Amino acid sequence: MKGIVLAGGLGTRFDPVTRVVNKHLLDVFGEPMVYFPIRSLAGAGVTDIVLVTGDQIAQFKRLLGDGSEFGVHLQYAFQQDPEGGIADAIVKAEGLVAGERVVVILGDNIFQDDLGPFVRGFEQQRKGAKILLKRLPKDEAVRFGVAEVDDGRIVRIVEKPADPPSDLVQTGCYMYDDRLFDLIRTLTPSERGELEVTDLNNVYIDEGTMTYDVLEGWWTDAGTPITKLRASILVARSRGVGASQLEEP
Q: Using CA atoms, how far apart are residues 211 and 3, in angstroms rounded to an integer?
């Protein structure tokens, strides 16, 4: 099993800071955001990792090196078009992970749960894919891909629906078998001009090989100023920082 961390994109929600630094290098409670997905993979026993990013790849190499600080072997892949979409970014790692099952994590996603049991469950799966879901109020779910579930099986994932079919949203952790890259090549760009990860996941759903687990602990992305602040507070609390320490002096 190999890991892929996606740390590209333009980070326009953080402009003007992201004119000079990649979003995934911004801090979450005093540490670079990208540390968290790397640690999640390492903690799950996935130690051979490819980080995919764009023009600021040198910044990541300077910070992370070969990954030995985290107990992993880290390699890098370059995505030239930062607006190509998540599935397009995954393809950039093909030369380094082809023929293996992979765990993909978005570089701005932070999980409280240990991902190890989910990864081990996927390793027992004969083929297909697995995604991790989280229950959110429907007024928050509209920001994400939402899973429609019938009799314990995902029927489809609807991207950013105005009327979510459930309260189960797709988090930024995806596990795929070794057919991943061939299936991505069957996708067509969406109206946004991107190769969408939701479309990829729906391919697995349509063939009946998609499984899922629902997270018990907290989960957040840190892709906007507000959610990055939320992530810092959640991490602080998980490390024993009391509410009084988070208030104004």
A: 19
Q: Sketch out the chain's domains with CATH numbers.
A: 2-246 (3.90.550.10)
* Overall average pLDDT of the 204-232 stretch: 96
Q: Which string of b and e fits 37-69 if b means at least 16 CB within 10 Å?
A: bbbbbbebebbbbbbbbbebbebbeeebeebee
pTM above 0.85, yes or no: yes
The amino acid occupying position 205 is: I
**Residue 138: pLDDT band by 50, 70, 90 thresholds?**
confident
pLDDT tens track for 90-107: 999 999 998 999 999 999
The 3-class SS string of the chain reads CEEEEECCCCCHHHCCHHHCCCHHHCEECCEECCHHHHHHHHHCCCCEEEEEECCCHHHHHHHHCCCHHHCCEEEEEECCCCCCCHHHHHHCCHHHHCCCCEEEEECCEEECCCCHHHHHHHHCCCCCEEEEEEECCHHHHCCCEEEEEECCEEEEEEECCCCCCCCEEEEEEEEECCCHHHHHCCCCCCCCCCCCHHHHHHHHHHCCCEEEEECCCCEEECCCHHHHHHHHHHHHHHCCCCHHHHCCC
pLDDT of residue 190: 87
Cα dihedral sign for 176, 219, 68, 117?
negative
- Separation of alpha carbons 100 and 94, rounded Å: 10
